[in-house]
Structure formats: structure tokens, C-alpha cells
């Protein structure tokens, strides 16, 4: 497929073909993408090949509706936006979860500049990620449904992607605006799905979210998160896991795969 064929089919998938290419287009793209296409570690935990060629990403995420993680989702969207003429920049972030620690850059996102305004656009951060792009404006609360986010800076002058939790801001990841190439992303991607200690190798995670609710599976627990309440369901058997994966999350996997995932991540022997 050509780049423009991929763009056209991607926009059709999100019902954005006729939308003007403006700031609202960016918001609709991110919100529709994270609502429809799951963030998940299934390919990593099954040790499937995970090439980052755009043709492969389009087939996996859009045609097969199999989702993926940040290096897949955000590369596909980066290429779509670049082909449409948006000013885009690769970001490589450190996922710190509010800790003052040195960690590798294992998260990919995108900086989009539109009419002089810079936006953090991220369709690959799972259940805690934003629904809409965030303006790169320091210390300004940005409300999205029942979630409040902000962009701040730490003492090292890195940007921080923060979420409000229990009345206090919690830094999810930090990033800078240095130049990063696809080769840099390939290296981080390789670590993230191959290293024996990498989070995505050792945990079954699947999620999708809308403005009103988040569906999140992590190993043996399924969380249904709404504004004022979270229902937590313990996964008790293979059939229950299989129904979640194939029903709620629309993943095309057979029951033997669900049985393997159950034995390894839900109820390991």
C-alpha cells in the first residue's frame, strides 16, 4: 500500500475522512483511536514478531484490529499526520510513575505543532493516557472527562506528563524536545518487547478508553473505571478471560491462546 492509501483507510476507519485538518481533527483522531484500538502487550507476551514497518502496523492495528503498544500505535499515527502535512516530532519518554529515578526512554509519543500551538499527542499510553492531545502549556490543568492532566517541568528542565490523583499531581512520564530518529525508537522498542525484565514481556495488559469510562485488564484483574467508581473483577477461569479478550476487547485469538495466557499471567502454577 502507498502512504496515502494507508492514510485514507486509517481516516475511514475512524470516520474522519471529511473532517477539516485542524486542532479538533487532532482531538478527534486521538479520542477515536484510543476508544477503538486496544493498547495491549499480547504480541510481546506471545513472543510474536513485532516489526515497525508502517505497512505491518496498519495491517495489525487497523485491518486485523489487534492493537499494540506505544511504539506501534504512535508510529502509525506519526506517519499518518506527517503524510497529511502536520508538523510532527518524535518524542521518547521515560516512564517514571512519580519516582525520582533514572530509567531508559521506553515510551514513544508525538509532538504536533499546529498554528503555533504545540500539542502532546499520545495514542499509546493505555488506561492512564489522555483522551485528547494536551497543549504544551506549563502548569495549566487540562480537564478531560473525570481526569485532569497537566504539563509541568522538573528540576532537570524535562517536561512532565502529570495526572491528578487524590488531589495531587502524579508524574506518569518525562520527556524532552531533543531530536530522536526512527533508529532511536527501534532500539527502545527492541528493549521493551525483548528484554527479560521489560514490563510488557512480564505482564498481560489490555485496555481501551473513552471520555466516560476505561476498560483495563492487567494479569488477573479487570477494572471498569468510571468517574466516581471502579469495579474490579478477579479473573477466575479461562472462559472468563477469553470472553474479555475476544468480546470486550475484540481481539481475534483462539481459546488455546487464552488458556496459555491464563496459565502464565492469571493463575500461574
TrEMBL record:
InterPro entries reported for this sequence: Arylamine_N-AcTrfase, Arylamine_NAT_domain_sf, Papain-like_cys_pep_sf
Alphabetical list of Pfam families matching this protein: Acetyltransf_2 (PF00797)
Source superkingdom: Bacteria
Matches recorded under Gene3D superfamilies: 3.30.2140.20
Keyword Transferase: yes
Record key words, sorted: Transferase
One of the record's GO molecular function terms: acetyltransferase activity
Keyword 4Fe-4S: no
Family: Belongs to the arylamine N-acetyltransferase family.
Name the UniProt record assigns to this protein: Acetyltransferase
Organism from which the protein derives: Pseudoalteromonas luteoviolacea
Lineage of the organism: Bacteria, Pseudomonadati, Pseudomonadota, Gammaproteobacteria, Alteromonadales
Amino acid at each position: 500500500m502507498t502512504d496515502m492509501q494507508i492514510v485514507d483507510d486509517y481516516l475511514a476507519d475512524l470516520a474522519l475522512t471529511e473532517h477539516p485538518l485542524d486542532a479538533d481533527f487532532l482531538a478527534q483522531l486521538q479520542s477515536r483511536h484510543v476508544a477503538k484500538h486496544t493498547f495491549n502487550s499480547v504480541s510481546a507476551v506471545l513472543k510474536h514478531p513485532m516489526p515497525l514497518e508502517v505497512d505491518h502496523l496498519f495491517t495489525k492495528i487497523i485491518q486485523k484490529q489487534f492493537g499494540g503498544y506505544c511504539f506501534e500505535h504512535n508510529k502509525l499515527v506519526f506517519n499518518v499526520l506527517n503524510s497529511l502535512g502536520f508538523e510532527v516530532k518524535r518524542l521518547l519518554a521515560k516512564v517514571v510513575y512519580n519516582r525520582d529515578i533514572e530509567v531508559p526512554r521506553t515510551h514513544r509519543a508525538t509532538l504536533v505543532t499546529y498554528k503555533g500551538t504545540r500539542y502532546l499527542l499520545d495514542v499509546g499510553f493505555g488506561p492512564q493516557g489522555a483522551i485528547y492531545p494536551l497543549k504544551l502549556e506549563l502548569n495549566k490543568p487540562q480537564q478531560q472527562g473525570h481526569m485532569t492532566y497537566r504539563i509541568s517541568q522538573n528540576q532537570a528542565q524535562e517536561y512532565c506528563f502529570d495526572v491528578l490523583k487524590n488531589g495531587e499531581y502524579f508524574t506518569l512520564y518525562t520527556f524532552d524536545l531533543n531530536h530522536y530518529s526512527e533508529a532511536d525508537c527501534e532500539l527502545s522498542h527492541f528493549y521493551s518487547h525483548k528484554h527479560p525484565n521489560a514490563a510488557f514481556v512480564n505482564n498481560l495488559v489490555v485496555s481501551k478508553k473513552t471520555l466516560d469510562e476505561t476498560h483495563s485488564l492487567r494479569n488477573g484483574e479487570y477494572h471498569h473505571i468510571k468517574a466516581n467508581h471502579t469495579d474490579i473483577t478477579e479473573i477466575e477461569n479461562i472462559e472468563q478471560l477469553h470472553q474479555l479478550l475476544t468480546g470486550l476487547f475484540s481481539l481475534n485469538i483462539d481459546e488455546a491462546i487464552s488458556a496459555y495466557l491464563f496459565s502464565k499471567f492469571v493463575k500461574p502454577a
